[in-house]
Design goal:
Blueprint: H1 3-34, E1 38-39, E2 49-53, H2 66-80, E3 86-90, H3 100-111, E4 119-122, H4 128-137, E5 143-148, H5 150-162, E6 166-171, H6 179-201
Parallel strand pairs: 1-6, 2-3, 2-5, 3-4, 5-6
């Protein structure tokens, strides 16, 4: 191998290492920030509100997809077990696969038997950061259990806590999710941590900043 090729390979290797560091540092931040704040549904602490993060709707554009179904079933169980009282579903009301929050609300109230008065929908949770920021700014949440699958949980908890919310994560069910799907989602989330860290550093406002809604949690008199 000529000296020229050796120099090029060395430069490519250095670029590869630099790229890995750029991606790995934000991922490490999410893991460290979420440490001690991740649970399963049987060991979760209590909170007034469960924040359920949206994801793809099924092919019929009406029912939640497999991952979303698991999140909703976990949230419903948290309510039934007394670990929470209300559910805030946050997702993209105009998503490519369909209206995420409409499908979430319908499934919770129609198939899982959750009282409709205890379910609030935020159709402008366009990504994880927006869901956390709007839960705080629009719905007045300072404390919540955040429900999503384990591959996404650390990033979600880290972002909500970075935004000042006392957030604990609860790993959602995913009974029908294949190993291939979960592995792909884990890689995607690993890469998404870079954007999450950048959003957190610059304190990005959510894409939609609607006026505050009535708070989901009533404050004690005089607070």
């Amino acid at each position: 191998m000529s000296d020229l090729w050796r120099r090029w390979w060395k430069r490519l290797a250095l670029l590869g290492i630099a790229g890995l560091v750029v991606v790995s540092v934000p991922w490490a931040w999410t893991e460290i920030s979420a440490r001690g704040h991740e649970y399963d549904e049987t060991t979760a602490p209590t909170a007034e509100v469960v924040l359920v993060l949206g994801t793809a709707v099924a092919d019929d554009r009406q029912q939640p997809g497999d991952r979303l179904t698991g999140r909703l079933e976990t949230a419903a169980e948290l309510v039934r077990s007394g670990r929470a009282r209300k559910i805030l579903v946050s997702g993209d009301g105009g998503g490519d696969s369909g209206d995420e929050t409409a499908a979430m609300t319908s499934y919770l109230t129609g198939q899982l038997g959750i009282d409709p008065q205890h379910v609030v929908a935020d159709p402008f949770g366009l990504d994880t950061y927006d869901s956390c920021a709007r839960a705080r700014d629009v719905y007045g949440l300072t404390r919540a259990l955040v429900v999503t699958q384990s591959d996404h949980l650390s990033r979600a908890v880290a972002l909500c806590r970075r935004l000042g919310m006392d957030a604990d994560g609860v790993a959602a069910r995913c009974a029908d999710c294949s190993t291939f799907l979960l592995a792909g989602k884990a890689v995607r989330d690993y890469l998404a941590c870079t954007k999450a860290a950048w959003d957190a550093i610059r304190n990005r406002p959510p894409a939609v900043t609607s006026p505050p809604s009535p708070a989901l949690v009533e404050k004690p008199p005089g607070s």
